[in-house]
Design goal:
Length: about 425
C-alpha cells in the first residue's frame, strides 16, 4: 500500500483538496467568482504591471478561500494546510492557495474550534533548525486569544506532545490553551528556515466529546460560506496591502508589532511598496536583525500572493542569504540579475510589496535596532557598495537556484524523512 507520512500532505489534506476542487468548480461558485473578479479589479484599479499577474493570483486567492472555508466545522474539525503552491493530487491539478501576503518559509495550518467544546491536539515535533512555531487561537477577526510557542511546548523525550483545549483553567495541565467566548480557530505556523532539512510538526486533532453523531455541513451551506470567504479574502488583502501602498514608494519604515488583524504575536513586520525605475536601477536594503533569530524578505504582488518562490529568489531568509561581516544583511531588489548573492527577484515585475518579518527574539524581547534602510540606486553604483564575497557568477547563481528548487520538493511529496 502506498504510504504517506508528510504532515502537510496527509490523506485528510488530499481528500480535503479534492473536495475543495469539486466545490471550486461548482457553477454557483464560478458565477460568484466572476462577480468578485469585477469587484476586486474595480476596488484596486491596478497598474499595468500588477494587472499582468492578476489572473494567476486571483485563482490562488479564490481557491485559498475555499480551502479555508471548507474547514469551518468545529464539531468535525480537521487539520488542513493552507497557502500551498500549485501541485497535483491523484492526477488532478490543484490550484495554489497562497493569499494574504504569505510567507514562503511558513507551513500554515488551521483547525476550527468552538469555545464550548473540548479538544486535544496531539503530535510530534518536526526537525527544525530553531523552534519557531506557534499554536495561535484566534477569534473571528484574527485577534489572538491565546497561544503556545514551540519554545514553551513541553514534550516527551521523543518529541511527542499533547495540547488540551477547553474553557477551563489549566489546573496543572501542561500545554493547555483556555478558550473563551468568540474563539474560532487555531492558526498554526511552523517556520522552515532551512528548506532542505527542516520539517513541520506532525499534528492531529480530536474532539473529545464528539459522541456518535456525524456533524456534516450541507452543501448549500458550504457554498454560501465559500462565497463569503472569497469576497472577504479579496477585501482583506486590499485592506492589508493599503498599509504599504499608502506610504511613500521605496520606503520601508512602517512597522507593525501587534497580535490583531492577522498579525502574529512576537513578530515584527516592516511594510513598504516598491517601484523600480528601470532595469538599470535597483533598491538596496540593509537589514539589522537586532536579536532576532529569524528574518525573511518576501516579495508579494498587490493581490497578496508571492510570485515564483521555488525556482527564483522570490523571497530570501537569513538562512538562505549571506551576511555582512558585521552581522547585518544587504539585499538588492532589481528586475535584472545584479550578480549579487542576496538578489531579491521580483519575477520580471518592476512593482510589488515587501513585508519584512523578524521573529525568534532572544527572551521574546524585541530589539530597538530592528530596521531596514533602503536606497534607490543605479545597479552599477549599488554593486560598488556590496562586499566582494557577496558577488556571484552566472554559474553560482544557477547552483543557488537549483539548490533552492530541490529543497522545496519535499513539501509536495508523499513521503519525507
Amino acid at each position: 500500500m502506498h504510504s504517506i507520512n508528510n504532515p502537510i500532505n496527509t490523506e485528510v489534506q488530499r481528500s480535503h483538496e479534492l473536495y475543495a476542487l469539486e466545490i471550486f468548480n461548482d457553477f454557483a461558485l464560478k458565477k460568484e467568482r466572476e462577480k468578485i473578479r469585477a469587484y476586486w479589479l474595480d476596488l484596486v484599479n491596478p497598474t499595468e504591471v500588477m494587472h499582468s499577474c492578476f489572473e494567476t493570483a486571483f485563482e490562488e486567492v479564490m481557491f485559498g478561500a475555499v480551502i479555508w472555508a471548507l474547514n469551518q466545522n468545529p464539531l468535525s474539525p480537521k487539520v488542513t494546510t493552507i497557502s500551498r503552491v500549485p501541485h497535483f493530487n491523484n492526477g488532478h491539478s490543484i490550484p495554489g492557495s497562497r493569499w494574504g501576503i504569505d510567507n514562503p518559509d511558513s507551513i500554515y495550518r488551521v483547525i476550527p474550534v468552538d469555545a464550548e467544546q473540548s479538544y486535544m491536539i496531539s503530535g510530534q515535533l518536526g526537525r527544525q533548525q530553531f523552534n519557531e512555531n506557534h499554536f495561535t487561537l484566534w477569534d473571528s477577526n484574527m485577534k489572538t486569544i491565546d497561544l503556545i510557542s514551540g519554545q514553551d511546548l513541553e514534550t516527551d523525550k521523543d518529541g511527542f506532545f499533547e495540547i488540551s483545549v477547553d474553557s477551563a483553567a489549566a489546573r496543572g495541565r501542561k500545554n493547555h490553551i483556555q478558550t473563551k467566548s468568540g474563539a474560532k480557530e487555531f492558526y498554526i505556523r511552523d517556520v522552515m528556515t532551512d528548506w532542505l532539512n527542516d520539517r513541520p510538526n506532525i499534528l492531529n486533532i480530536e474532539l473529545l466529546n464528539r459522541g456518535h453523531v456525524e456533524h456534516k455541513v450541507p452543501r448549500p451551506d458550504e457554498l454560501e460560506i465559500c462565497k463569503r470567504y472569497m469576497k472577504k479574502w479579496a477585501t482583506n488583502t486590499t485592506r492589508w496591502n493599503q498599509q504599504a501602498l499608502s506610504k511613500p514608494t521605496n520606503e520601508f519604515s512602517f512597522k507593525i508589532d501587534r497580535d490583531t488583524d492577522g498579525a502574529l504575536r512576537n513578530q515584527v513586520y516592516v511594510l513598504g511598496h516598491f517601484s523600480i525605475p528601470s532595469e538599470d536601477h535597483c533598491i538596496i536594503l540593509k537589514i539589522s536583525l537586532s536579536g532576532a533569530n529569524y528574518f525573511i524578505a518576501p516579495i508579494t504582488n498587490i493581490w497578496g500572493t508571492t510570485n515564483n518562490i521555488i525556482s527564483r529568489n522570490g523571497s530570501l531568509n537569513n538562512n538562505q542569504a549571506k551576511s555582512n561581516d558585521d552581522g547585518t544583511y544587504t539585499f538588492i531588489l532589481s528586475v535584472k540579475d545584479p550578480g549579487i548573492y542576496n538578489w531579491l527577484d521580483p519575477c520580471d515585475m518592476s512593482e510589488g510589496i515587501l513585508t519584512l518579518r523578524w521573529s525568534g527574539f532572544e527572551g521574546k524581547v524585541r530589539g530597538n535596532e530592528t530596521y531596514a534602510e533602503s536606497q534607490t540606486l543605479l545597479l552599477s553604483d549599488a554593486k560598488k557598495l556590496i562586499s566582494p564575497h557577496l558577488h556571484v557568477t552566472s554559474t553560482a547563481r544557477q547552483k543557488q537556484l537549483a539548490t533552492r528548487s530541490s529543497s522545496h520538493e519535499w513539501r509536495l511529496s508523499d513521503e519525507i524523512f
